[in-house]
Every structure is written in C-alpha cells, then in structure tokens.
Write a sequence for this structure.
C-alpha cells in the first residue's frame, strides 16, 4: 500500500539535491577547514559560500550567521548565551514556546506571557512583563503544534520603542533588550528577511526544511552580546567552537535556498488542501474542534474530537499506513498533556483527544482523501 506521511512538522525527507551537495564533503573533501594547505582552504571556501547563501536568504551579513547542530542547540545558545552575558537580568517568553526555549529560560528570572485561545500572544501582556532589567524577549514565529503565526513585526516594533525609551532615560547605563524568535517551522511558508521581521536573533533547523537533521543556524545581529556555550578552538567566530561540520552546513544552505525558491508555489498549493481538510473534518462530527488560529501555517491542521483517544486513533491510522502526530515529536514520550494545548485553554481530556496533521512537498490530494476516509471509518 501507498504510505501517507502527514507529520512534516516533525521531520522532512532530505531532498536528493541536498544529499548530492553534501556527499563530496564526507570522503573527497573531508579536510579540516582550519588547516592551511590548499585542499583544506578549498573546503573553507565552500563553507564560506554556504554561509553567504544563508545570509542572502535572511538578508543579513555573513558574519551574523553561526552554524550549529540543529534547532535545539540554536535556541539554547540564544537563551543561555544572552542571559549568561547579563547575569542579573530577566527575560520574557511565551507559554507556547518549544521546550528548547522554555527549559533553558526557566534557569533564569523568566516571565511567561500567556496566549489567547487561538494561540496568539497578547502584545500588551508582553509589554507589561518587560521592565528596565529585561534583556531578552523570545517569541516563536510559528507554533510547531497548532501552527499559529505570531505577530513578530508588531512585537519587534514594541521592543524597538522600549529600547529607545530605555536609552533615552538611562543613557549608557541602559541594559540592552534583544528579540529572539524560534523560526524552525517558518522557512517553508513564511518570509525570513530579518530586517523586515525586526529580530536580533533567529533560530532555524535543517531537519524541518528538507535538509539534514542536526543542522541549523543562529542568526545573531551585529552588536548582540552573547556568551559561547561550547568552548575550544574558536570556530564560528568563537561563538560555537569545534571542527565545522562542513557537509551539514552545505546541506543546510542548499535546503534553505531550495525551500525559498518554491515557498510561494507551495503556499498556493497547500492552503486549499489544508482548508479542504479542515472543512471536511468539521463535517465528520459535532464533537470535533479545530485548534489554533485561522492565521496559521499553510501546512498545519490540528483538531480534537471529544471522547476519542488520540494515541489509539494515531495507531489505527498507522495500521492503515497513514502517519500523523498526537503533538510535538520532541515530547512524544511525555505522558503529560501538551503545554501548548493547556495554554490555549484545552482541558486535559481534549488535549488527549488531539491530532496534528502537517502537509509537505510530497502531499497530494489523494493523501487527503485517504486520510478523511480512514478517520470517517474509525470514529
């Protein structure tokens, strides 16, 4: 039988073109880019070219791109790096952040801003939690579970205004305030130009964009003070030491370039499939609700059916060769209801009745038809 994969928020298959771009750097071009002989310097140039490609997609300087091993490391570097550079400061995060933000943030003086029932942050509540000792605000671009897209530009404007007011009031004694966004789910469907978004730090993950897993970057705007978390030979401008994983960086850059090329066409293709699926799901049961906002990622559908056990439904779909998720794959082993669903006001019972469906480049209309038929039979 044809297998239907509908969990692209958890992992994407690597594009063949990405694999082909990476392969030479495992065997033929294996050299350490820090070495001085010509073959090694050729590899260093390839790494520089990959960095330039990423910088071009973000609209930033090459010196502002730091290659890391995935989104989790990038988030940790952003949170711990800023907070350790300002040990007496506090930070503000949203209640629906990924654990890669929430857990490191919990080590510091952390204020959590709530979201509404659609999963959207309240900008006024963010403002109320910021004081003269706040050095960092971290709000994800688009949620990995329910797909809600946050008003990043408006938050950036608020932070810019607070920064200007703080400097006018305190002068050279003013503490900086930075804006970080976890944008791991965004590149396939949303614009990434950092100047338009107004962010100081941004996390991206290759495993979500048809690139290699354990690849990613942290964009760090010039002037941001950040303490490195991995110490050693001073690679990546001293921010992330360790011999560079050149193949991973090459693959990440190729994947990011490729998703940017098809971003608009994929949004145009997937939005009707997403909307058809939502409309058909709502006809299946009067006990079914859609979680999240209408302002959501083009590939995300998240629903709950009262009285239905989501793990049983997921396993029964899996027996029919249809793969979906009950939540974030990163917390799939946790028996606790999703903190994201709790934050939007779902009861524990409804949270345990929720299913996440995420579409991708290989999703077809026949996949959606097969899913709807199976769910109709099972419920």
């Amino acid at each position: 039988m044809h297998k239907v994969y509908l969990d692209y928020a958890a992992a994407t298959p690597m594009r063949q073109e990405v694999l082909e771009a990476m392969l030479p750097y495992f065997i033929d071009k294996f050299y350490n880019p820090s070495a001085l002989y010509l073959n090694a310097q050729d590899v260093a140039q390839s790494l520089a070219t990959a960095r330039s490609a990423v910088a071009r997609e973000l609209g930033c300087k090459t010196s502002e791109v730091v290659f890391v091993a995935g989104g989790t490391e990038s988030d940790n570097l952003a949170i711990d790096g800023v907070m350790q550079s300002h040990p007496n400061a506090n930070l503000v995060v949203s209640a629906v952040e990924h654990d890669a933000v929430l857990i490191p943030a919990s080590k510091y003086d952390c204020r959590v801003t709530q979201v509404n029932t659609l999963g959207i942050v309240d900008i006024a509540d963010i403002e109320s939690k910021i004081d003269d000792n706040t050095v960092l605000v971290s709000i994800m671009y688009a949620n990995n579970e329910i797909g809600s897209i946050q008003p990043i530009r408006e938050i950036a404007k608020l932070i810019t205004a607070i920064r200007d007011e703080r400097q006018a009031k305190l002068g050279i004694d003013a503490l900086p305030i930075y804006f970080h966004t976890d944008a791991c789910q965004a590149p396939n469907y949303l614009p990434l130009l950092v100047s338009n978004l107004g962010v100081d730090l941004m996390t991206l993950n290759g495993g979500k964009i048809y690139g290699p897993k354990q690849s990613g970057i942290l964009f760090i705007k010039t002037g941001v003070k950040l303490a490195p978390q991995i110490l050693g030979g001073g690679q990546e401008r001293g921010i992330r030491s360790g011999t560079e994983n050149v193949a991973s960086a090459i693959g990440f850059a190729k994947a990011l370039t490729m998703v940017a090329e098809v971003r608009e066409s994929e949004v145009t293709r997937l939005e009707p499939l997403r909307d058809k699926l939502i409309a058909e799901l709502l006809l299946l049961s009067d006990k079914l609700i859609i979680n999240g906002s209408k302002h959501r990622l083009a590939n995300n559908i998240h629903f709950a059916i009262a009285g239905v056990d989501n793990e049983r439904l997921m396993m029964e779909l899996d027996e029919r060769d249809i793969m979906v998720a009950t939540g974030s794959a990163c917390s799939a082993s946790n028996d606790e209801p999703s903190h994201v669903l709790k934050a939007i006001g779902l009861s524990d019972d409804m949270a345990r009745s929720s299913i996440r469906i995420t579409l991708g480049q290989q999703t077809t209309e026949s996949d959606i038809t097969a899913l709807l038929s199976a769910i109709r039979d099972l419920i």
